[in-house]
Design the sequence.
């Protein structure tokens, strides 16, 4: 019997979400841990999406189920979920992974409810145990507690993972094996839920998740002015500025796309420099995989120093100004 | 318009750094942490109260929780909800999102007539963000998650916006529907003294397993396809070397370490002033 590991290939306007490739990479890793034959498949829905199949294959999808229809152009759970649910019922995969993106966080549990199976949400680790079951580690209490979740008796064993948790692997050119789904009968017309449009705007500058160096402000930065200083520093070294939730709540930073933490982004830059960070687990969980971690805080007893490689006990305003003077 | 709001009592997120695992019992200890209404659920209550103001009708809050959740329901009533339902039974215990949403669905079916159901997009403690979508599935009504904008077209349809990464989606949805709301949707009102007084006389129904038309095997731990394994606290500790010296020296050290770590930094550091040619520029 062949073990089947599936990944939902999330695309918007013909662009794959990065989490899809990260999940395919992880799927390859899991496949290696399962005994016997395995097959990795991607499920791709949308309009004119065939062009994405090469990329999916290159990152590990041996089989790609494609539902291509004008009706699937915009994501709609009332169209997407039944297509996926029917396919799962026919093919009976063992494991099914979704990105814990806005779309995946709705679609995953919707499909699971239709199949009456379980989803481990926002996993930070996935492994195969001695019984060949998927074990998912999920954070709770803002990341303070990690719990293992199993789906022993139902299939598929589902899990969702935020972008940036797993690392995208190397590409290996492979011919995609495409299975076309019959979606000719799909009709958006007449459904009680209608998707009207999607608007996406890529933020300016180096995207936070791609930056090699991140300057991060915590509540201690105290002002928009200091946030601007972090952005200036970041711009000078080709990095990005980030923040904790309170900084976003205060309106000092531009919004959620720069927030790092359990309920925000997960980043792993080569260097992370934090200013006025308290060290709350919620935030730390979002940057714990960073290379070098430096923190500036005037309170020498601040817990943030325990989770830092290097600590500077000093007024962050002074350190920021000195950095701005020094870094050109 | 009859509106139902699902709420969840959670340990106050302000104290999550004090949550730990008892090494002896291997259970999560959260002693002394107050239980509050999950913060984003209050945005759901607020949205319901605003709809009621426009279209009239009734706002009912519902929760599946231990008996002491009456306190949290009373708070929701003090905000302005009209009635409350507590689903409480030992048989409901240990429920994952599928069993929780099933039980809530059965409670809501018993309440009966509804036009809109609000849930918070996610809870602060478990944060799976799955109950809203799964509840919508059990009730077989359209559902949307991460709603940050809501404009009624009339008493039959809503225009809704949901958050997606770096943007938003717009939807037209017919009632009845379920909306998982984000904190950006509105600013929940504070409770007034009058609200507290009025809440004392508002009804709170308490329903157990026998009061609902449920299949036993869908409840609680039995009805939960996900099972909990080990729990642990992540080890996030690093070496924590504290730098010494003057401000200039510390910053110079940082820049040196950035370069060692592979970041290309153009800087004028003291160390460089004495290099040949006046340093790196």
Sequence:
């Amino acid at each position: 019997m062949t073990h089947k590991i599936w990944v939902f290939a999330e695309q918007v306007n013909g662009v794959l979400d990065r989490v899809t490739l990260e999940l395919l990479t992880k799927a390859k890793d899991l496949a290696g841990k399962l005994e016997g034959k395995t097959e990795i498949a991607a499920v791709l829905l949308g309009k004119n999406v065939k062009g994405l199949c090469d990329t999916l294959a290159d990152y590990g999808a041996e089989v790609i189920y494609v539902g291509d229809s004008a009706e699937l152009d915009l994501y709609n759970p009332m169209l997407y979920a039944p297509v996926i649910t029917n396919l799962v019922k026919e093919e009976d995969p063992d494991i099914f992974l979704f990105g814990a993106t806005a779309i995946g966080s709705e679609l995953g549990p919707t499909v699971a409810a239709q199949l009456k199976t379980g989803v481990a949400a926002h996993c930070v680790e996935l492994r195969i145990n001695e019984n060949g079951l998927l074990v998912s580690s999920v954070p709770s209490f803002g990341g303070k507690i990690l719990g293992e979740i199993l789906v022993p008796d139902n299939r598929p064993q589902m899990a969702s993972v935020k972008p940036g948790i797993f690392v995208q692997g190397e590409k290996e050119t492979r011919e995609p094996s495409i299975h076309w789904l019959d979606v000719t009968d799909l009709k958006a017309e007449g459904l009680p839920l209608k998707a009207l449009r999607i608007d996406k705007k890529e933020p300016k500058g180096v995207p936070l998740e791609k930056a090699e160096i991140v300057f991060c402000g915590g509540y201690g930065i105290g002002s928009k002015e200091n946030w601007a200083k972090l952005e200036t520093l970041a711009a000078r070294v080709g990095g990005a500025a980030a923040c904790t939730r309170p900084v976003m709540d205060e309106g000092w930073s531009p919004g959620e796309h720069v927030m790092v933490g359990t309920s925000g982004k997960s980043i792993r830059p080569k260097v992370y420099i934090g200013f006025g960070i308290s060290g709350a687990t919620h935030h730390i969980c979002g940057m714990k995989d960073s290379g070098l971690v430096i923190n500036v805080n005037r309170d020498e007893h601040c817990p943030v120093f325990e989770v830092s490689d290097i600590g500077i006990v000093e007024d962050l305003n002074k350190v920021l100004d000195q950095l701005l003077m020094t870094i050109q | 318009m009859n509106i139902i709001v699902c709420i969840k009592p959670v340990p106050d997120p302000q104290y999550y750094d004090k949550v730990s695992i008892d090494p002896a019992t291997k259970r999560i200890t959260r002693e002394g942490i107050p239980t509050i209404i999950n913060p984003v659920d209050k945005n759901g209550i607020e949205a319901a109260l605003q709809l009621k103001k426009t279209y009239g009708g009734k706002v009912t809050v519902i929760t599946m929780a231990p008996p002491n959740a009456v306190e949290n329901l009373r708070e929701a009533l003090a905000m302005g909800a009209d009635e409350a339902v507590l689903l409480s039974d030992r048989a409901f215990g240990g429920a994952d999102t599928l069993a929780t949403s099933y039980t809530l669905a059965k409670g809501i079916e018993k309440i009966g007539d509804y036009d809109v159901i609000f849930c918070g997009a996610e809870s602060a403690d478990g944060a799976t963000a799955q109950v809203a979508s799964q509840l919508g599935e059990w009730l077989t009504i359209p559902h949307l998650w991460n709603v940050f904008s809501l404009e009624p077209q009339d008493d039959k349809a809503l225009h809704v916006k949901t958050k997606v990464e770096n943007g938003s989606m717009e939807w037209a949805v017919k009632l009845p529907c379920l909306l998982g709301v984000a904190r950006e949707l509105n600013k929940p009102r504070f409770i007034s003294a009058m609200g507290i007084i009025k809440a004392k006389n508002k009804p709170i129904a308490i329903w157990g397993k026998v009061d609902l038309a449920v299949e036993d095997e869908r409840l609680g731990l039995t009805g939960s396809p996900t099972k909990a394994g080990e729990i642990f606290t992540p080890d996030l500790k690093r070496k924590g070397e504290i730098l010494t010296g003057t401000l200039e020296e510390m910053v110079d050290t940082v820049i040196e370490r950035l370069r060692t770590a592979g970041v290309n930094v153009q800087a004028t550091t003291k160390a460089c002033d004495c290099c040949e040619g006046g340093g790196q520029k």
